[in-house]
Amino acid sequence: MALNSVELPDRPGGTSPHVIVDDVDVPLLNEEDLHHLEKVRRLRSGELVSVTDGVGAWRWCEFQASVLVPCADIQRVVKPEPVLTVGFALVKGSKPELVVQKLTELGIDVICPFVAERSVVRWDDSKVERQTERLTKVSREASMQSRRVWLPDVKPVATLADIVRSGGVVRADRGGSALNAEHTTVLVGPEGGWSDAEHESTPVVGIGQTVLRAETAAIAVGTLMVSLRDGLSL
After folding, report:
1. How many angstroms from the chain centroid is the CA of residue 141?
2. Inter-axis angle of helices 214-229 and 95-106, to 10 degrees?
3. Phi, then psi, of 154 in degrees rounded to 5
4. Cα–Cα distance, 182 to 226 (Å, whole number)
5. CATH 2.40.240.20 spans which residues of the chain?
6. Which pLDDT does position 6 carry in this prediction?
7. Does domain 18-76 have CATH number 3.40.50.2000?
8. 85-229: CATH number
């Protein structure tokens, strides 16, 4: 193949596009991704594209006449440990999309929208289905942009009780103890704050002295958690 003699990067990145396919052995582009590569990125034949199945396998391919031609062996990346989960209470407008996008870019593994007692935003069953599909699409796009090879799991909207039931959960709030690497599931409350009952449901961790918007708090929590897991913070 044309690139056999070229030393390829050992991870997705740089200026090369990154796309998600069903099978890295036979990487097939869907119509949307093909349109993006041809019409938006204006890729030329012979340019590199990295592909992943979203569960740890990836490889380099050449873009040739609207198809992907593998030009390197399949690489497999171990899933990061521990698994990091951020739950966020529903917020208004397009803010849930912003939260999911940024948590995906940061490297959070599981993203759980939920309804708290003081949540202003509440979705009915039909909207839950539509929005879960939309948030999953946002996460997929953000995974390609950030060159992830393990896609996050975007959960349907749950209640706080559903999430707390799994154990090991902490809440972010002012005055809490310092966040550490053992805190692998952190919840961020609604704009109206936590109710008295919710205050008693789980331990509390602090993420700063200022009052943050709900979407900012979720992104800040994700940043701190990934930094601790990746050894970038003491």
Report:
1. 10
2. 10
3. -95, 110
4. 12
5. 18-76
6. 64
7. no
8. 3.40.1280.10
